[in-house]
Amino acid sequence: EVTEYYPGFEFIILLVQSLILINKNKITNDSVEFEKLVVKLIIILEMAVANDLHEFHLRLWLIKLYNLINCYSESKFNFEFLKIKLIQLDTLSNSITNRIGTTTTDKSILNSCTNFYDSHAANDCPNLINYAFQNGTFDKLQGFIELSIRLSNSITKVLNAIELIKISRITNDKELIDDCCIPVLKSYWGKILNNSNYLQGVTDSDCQINDNRDIKTFWDNGIHEKINEIDEFLNSNISNNPNNNIDYVKLNLIKELILYKKSRNLPTLINQYNELVNKQSKEEDEEISRQFTSIELWSFKTFQIIINKNENENELVENAINEFTKIFNDNIIDKIDS
Questions:
Q1: What is the SS3 assignment for 235-255?
Q2: DSSP string spanning 78-117?
Q3: Which of the ends of the chain has fewer CB neighbours closer than 10 A, N or C?
Q4: C-alpha span between 93 and 90 (Å, rounded)
Q5: What are the tens digits of pLDDT across the range 96-152?
């Protein structure tokens, strides 16, 4: 049967992982060599998936690798082939939606995620809780309540809203931004930023942002455990698509709320934004900075200059322009020349 498990694919992934480990140190900070290696890995996996269409691990790896070189159309093809739906959108959609707003204006996958949160998660979970009460199945009640909270506070939900804003800004879809995205951002800011209690060891699950993203399945092959050296390769700054976490959410969330002036307490937002930007700029917070690409770090700092009135603002703007020129030359011009 074409859908039966075939163990041979594990050796293919082991080969891909071995090639990454062998070449990892040779391409440090060399984006051209990085992309050459990624293309070689894609070719190997495409040949394998042609003979095993339904092996989802191969397609998860292909989605990840295509994202690294900004081939959204191929990532989308493999993602749709997996027929991911409902709660899997919350756990697996990040494999393709991470920074999707920088590669395409296609909102179809983001809209599917939004529909899941607004329709299924918002309606089905309360219905399940009511069903448990009415039928006396109290042993399942706690699970239904926890599921509802995890979906309501999902980090994927707010990341989805951030990417929708980026795309909608390009397509001039103001209605989607105001009616769909901004309310999500405001609700999350109220949970983790507006009230200081949320930043000081709160354990109540209703006050926490839940990271439901399924990272385990991606590594559930080969030696069946995460390999840190390969994870660093796939999510390094040079990849232009590193993994993101709560600090990434906070900075983008506050930036968008300031940009659209969607808070009565704008000075507090600006102070929080300054604090976060200054924090990720410090050498000791390298772990935080690793979540951002060089152009993202530049944009955060530039936005900080704009929103803060400063005596030497002209000098700061000029420095920002020079820094952007350097980033552009390093990441674009050098690739064209090569």
A1: CCHHHCCCCCCHHHHHHHHHH
A2: HHHHTT--THHHHHHTHHHHTTGGGT----HHHHHHHHII
A3: N
A4: 6
A5: 999 999 899 999 999 999 999 998 888 888 888 887 888 887 888 888 888 888 898
